[in-house]
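Quick one: examine the sequence and fold tokens given here and explain what the tokens say about the fold. Here goes:
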Amino acid sequence: MVRPLELAGCPMHELLDRQSAKLARRLVRGFAERIPVYRRLPEEELDGDITAITEHNLRLISRAFRERRPPVRADLAPLRESAARRAQEGVPLEALLAAYHLGARMVCEKLFADARPDDLDDVLEAGRIVLLYMEAATAAVCSAYLEERESLLSQEQHAIHATVAALLGGDRAALAGVRLPPRYLVLAVAAGRHPDEDGPGAPVAGRRKLHRLRTALQRYAAEPVLPALDTAGGLVLVPLQGEEPEPGELARAAAKAAGVPVWLAAECAPPQGVPAAARLVEEVLEVVRVFEQPPGGYRLADVLLEYQLTRSSQATALLAGLLDPLLDNPDLLRTLTAYLGTGLDRRRTAELLHVHPNTVDYRLRRVVVLTGLDPMDPAHLQRIGAALAARRLTERR
């Protein structure tokens, strides 16, 4: 038979049992005084659930003293149930663990306050048993808490995905009972590839990039943003209550947080207008990428001509065909593109192409001869720009 641990000739488990109810209330008061989260819990919860689980812990410690062994899994079931309830209530895990450690310390201080020198061996053994108990208890509490949080997050994610799908699909029936903001800023996002995504930890790097991007966008919304993203990009619905953020600012913040170039297209719409806005921003973003615009935030007004050229029509092919005579001489087409891209600056064009300015002049004269289009003529310039844009579009299709 195992000899019970003693203090001043009295079994420790009996000392603890005699005062367990009173000590539990004292411990709970200590939690409320020293742990801010517990201070904000309702009195009925402190006096009910929290006090009850504290008493159960004291009984388990008492049994551990009597049997000189830590609790078994079945003994810890109430601790796991209590931890799951705290997770449901949103009590942080660190606060929960702080309460367990504070409680263990207060028990030891109270129980061993009058220990005598000849009690040293039993006090040391009791301390070892308390450490074993805390190891078992915290492991049970952490696993139950995290399992419950994972379940809750899964439910939250499912609800978010369902809301996004309903908004994008215009499913008003599915949105019945869902509180919606008056407006959404609908974003189509394209994110560059992070260097870490090319290494062995690519999946983790991609998820971390997305998390940073979402967190950056969340700073512009009072309510949770609704993302439909993968590592390359996608759609994000940003709930708006007040002033609409500027797309360029959003793109810069997202790029800085994610550590990659970010392109985004934005359009504001009420909930019922989200499907049309989503189609529009996806088209605008496609135009931005087709015409190789720099990273940043865009609206339809920023790419009106390019957007119109991407609309399906017979004119697009005809415009692209205006430059067909240059296909046999790629240098001419490259020079014409660079010349327009530099704002008709022949010296800058020459620097970009690593040729003499006179070579630029010669090539531009050849363009006039072959196509009949003169970039020096303002009447021809707009047609040349449209033809270059149309060719770029048709080459990508």
About this structure: The chain has 16 helices and seven strands. The longest strand covers residues 183-191. The two ends are 85 Å apart (CA to CA). The mean pLDDT is 88.
